Amino acid sequence: MSDRQSSNAYWQANLKIIYVCIAIWALVSYGFAIILRPLLSGIKIGGTDLGFWFAQQGSILVFIVLIFFYAARMNKLDRDHGVDE
Amino acid sequence: MSQFTLNLIFIGLSFALYIGIAIWARAGSTSEFYAANRGVSPVMNGMATAADWMSAASFISMAGLIAFTGYDNSTFLMGWTGGYVLLAMLLAPYLRKFGKFTVPEFIGDRFYSGTARIIGVICLLIISITYVIGQMTGVGVTFSRYLEVSNSTGLWIGAALVFCYAVLGGMKGITYTQVAQYIVLIIAYTIPAVFIALQLTGHVLPQTGLFGSLNGSDTKFLTTLDQVVTDLGFKSYTGHHGSTFNMVLFTLALMIGTAGLPHVIIRFFTVPKVSDARKSAGWALVFIALLYTVAPAVGSMSRFNLTTTMWPGAATGETFSQPAVSLDSIQNDPEKEWMRNWQVTGLLDWEDKNGDGLIQYYNDGGESEALAAVVTEQNLQGNELTTVNRDIMVLANPEIANLPGWVIAIVAAGGLAAALSTAAGLLLAISGAVSHDLVKGAINPNISEKGELLAARISMAVSILVATFLGLNPPGFAAQTVALAFGLAASSIFPVLMMGIFSKRINKQGAIAGMLAGILSTLLYIFTYKGWFFIAGTNMLEDTAANWLFGISPASFGVIGALINFGVAYVVSNATEEPPAHVQDLVESIRVPRGAGDAQAH
């Protein structure tokens, strides 16, 4: 990916949205649900703590939101750059 | 009406529906056979993808995996859903734009190499065949349990059904039967879950019931469950007991493995537009989440029900306030008939070791003061519920909760739908690789459209026979789906596709070297601990955490294999010449959506 990096603004904008989404994707699953769970254990929810909720339910819901967010942002980007179908 | 008749009616009706769809959705061209003529709406494709994805393991085993391990097995929940985020952003839209029929075809074109394509075919075949054996055995087991036929008869009936719609309809027939199968399996999964959530917590939604309070009590359900299982010497349900490092690594291996599974990727070739491929991944995850967010509730609540059956006092959280269930009750009470039914199958068994007429269920090596006192006082000689197969958590769930017979019949039809829909998707990936990548791509490039369609149907028929044969005589690797199929998908297919899209610099040499390094390192690591080609006794090191390299479990190694693949491909590509101009143009073209509609005339 190093040389001949696509200079195309559309592609760069796409990559930027992907970076943001992937960061959130990793934060909720690997972060909140696993690594950061001890830090969040003070936040109680339904007989357990926030990390457990993220591990068994929350991260899946965030994943769904992320995909629809990405799809919507990309539709707009496609139109703005005149590459929509 | 007897339970057998009910099962027969529900399974028969669902099969009649699938056959009706098969007759309606016959394929007349290769485009219909491989990609349903790219005319499937994003929502429909999402539903079909959900059925394609959710296998016998998701339907039957996953709740049980969570039930007996609790929080630590959340890896499966996150791992088997998080891959769709990667698919939606990193693979599906660009591969749809590429507009061809198979995953190896993209690898071959992008890396301008027949060798790369063949390596892709080999990976696809290992992954999909490992995976399909589990589905075929699942069909056999479900049939034999609910329709009182032998395992092999059940398998042949299932194979004949898949034959009808897969050979006739290809991707088109499979897509619409998968939509129907999704509806059957989600109803089958949800109904017992709602009943049980209502009984225990008063919540209609199992998702909120999991975090609610027990009926008639202020104590949260999960608090009571933790209390009861730790009383019996088991590890707490919500606690984290394993290694954090491996939990992260295993989840990541499942996620990138999911995104690299060929039978899932090809589903996104069936939608009309690139934007539909993105949206469709979202819908797929919505439909998958309807089962995956219910599974933890099913798992925890059925574990609670099982425990309160064994220790009636556990219902209020005071485990030892009443004596354990009596042998007499298990053998004679009508509401414990399910225990006797499942004892016959060998999935459940008990033995009154100390001869006190009670069956005490607990963890032998467990550390619990309350338990230690009971063990001494009642002179216990060991756990007396000697076998509890985790699959019962879903299969016996309706019976444990005393639900009506038709619910049990629906669960039977749902289990079959889950196994059959995944099997059909895998068989399509296999037969496409054989007829399109091997026959047309390598052996006879001049084959006519009609000739290729015939080749596709023949390879589908042969694939079904091979899968049925392997289902009847499962080889050693069949049980290693998670390590082998996900490991290879993560270490070979996912990286090579991603580099093919996101880099213009990775060339033929880099891709081939990367794939080989990824696959071979992953196989070597798995074989070191699981035995060469999974032959027992040939493993070089014992499969225990202490022996693992840096504590990495063989099932998580796909992540390391992927890193090796990326690294080798990068180094080799930079040491050799850059890809030709037409390949760089191809990469430019798949990065923009416009023109995807034309790509189908191919």
Automatic annotation (TrEMBL), chain A:
<feature type="transmembrane region" description="Helical">
    <location>
        <begin position="52"/>
        <end position="72"/>
    </location>
</feature>
<keyword id="KW-0472">Membrane</keyword>
<feature type="transmembrane region" description="Helical">
    <location>
        <begin position="17"/>
        <end position="40"/>
    </location>
</feature>
<keyword id="KW-0812">Transmembrane</keyword>
<dbReference type="Pfam" id="PF13937">
    <property type="entry name" value="DUF4212"/>
</dbReference>
<dbReference type="InterPro" id="IPR019886">
    <property type="entry name" value="Na_symporter_ssu"/>
</dbReference>
<feature type="domain" description="Sodium symporter small subunit">
    <location>
        <begin position="8"/>
        <end position="84"/>
    </location>
</feature>
<protein>
    <submittedName>
        <fullName>Putative solute:sodium symporter small subunit</fullName>
    </submittedName>
</protein>
<keyword id="KW-1133">Transmembrane helix</keyword>
From TrEMBL, chain B:
<dbReference type="InterPro" id="IPR019899">
    <property type="entry name" value="Na/solute_symporter_VC_2705"/>
</dbReference>
<feature type="transmembrane region" description="Helical">
    <location>
        <begin position="406"/>
        <end position="434"/>
    </location>
</feature>
<protein>
    <submittedName>
        <fullName>Cation/acetate symporter</fullName>
    </submittedName>
</protein>
<feature type="transmembrane region" description="Helical">
    <location>
        <begin position="478"/>
        <end position="498"/>
    </location>
</feature>
<keyword id="KW-1133">Transmembrane helix</keyword>
<feature type="transmembrane region" description="Helical">
    <location>
        <begin position="154"/>
        <end position="171"/>
    </location>
</feature>
<keyword id="KW-1003">Cell membrane</keyword>
<keyword id="KW-0739">Sodium transport</keyword>
<dbReference type="GO" id="GO:0015293">
    <property type="term" value="F:symporter activity"/>
</dbReference>
<keyword id="KW-0915">Sodium</keyword>
<dbReference type="InterPro" id="IPR038377">
    <property type="entry name" value="Na/Glc_symporter_sf"/>
</dbReference>
<dbReference type="InterPro" id="IPR050277">
    <property type="entry name" value="Sodium:Solute_Symporter"/>
</dbReference>
<feature type="transmembrane region" description="Helical">
    <location>
        <begin position="116"/>
        <end position="134"/>
    </location>
</feature>
<feature type="transmembrane region" description="Helical">
    <location>
        <begin position="6"/>
        <end position="25"/>
    </location>
</feature>
<feature type="transmembrane region" description="Helical">
    <location>
        <begin position="454"/>
        <end position="472"/>
    </location>
</feature>
<dbReference type="GO" id="GO:0006814">
    <property type="term" value="P:sodium ion transport"/>
</dbReference>
<keyword id="KW-0472">Membrane</keyword>
<feature type="transmembrane region" description="Helical">
    <location>
        <begin position="281"/>
        <end position="301"/>
    </location>
</feature>
<dbReference type="GO" id="GO:0046942">
    <property type="term" value="P:carboxylic acid transport"/>
</dbReference>
<feature type="transmembrane region" description="Helical">
    <location>
        <begin position="247"/>
        <end position="269"/>
    </location>
</feature>
<comment type="similarity">
    <text>Belongs to the sodium:solute symporter (SSF) (TC 2.A.21) family.</text>
</comment>
<feature type="transmembrane region" description="Helical">
    <location>
        <begin position="183"/>
        <end position="205"/>
    </location>
</feature>
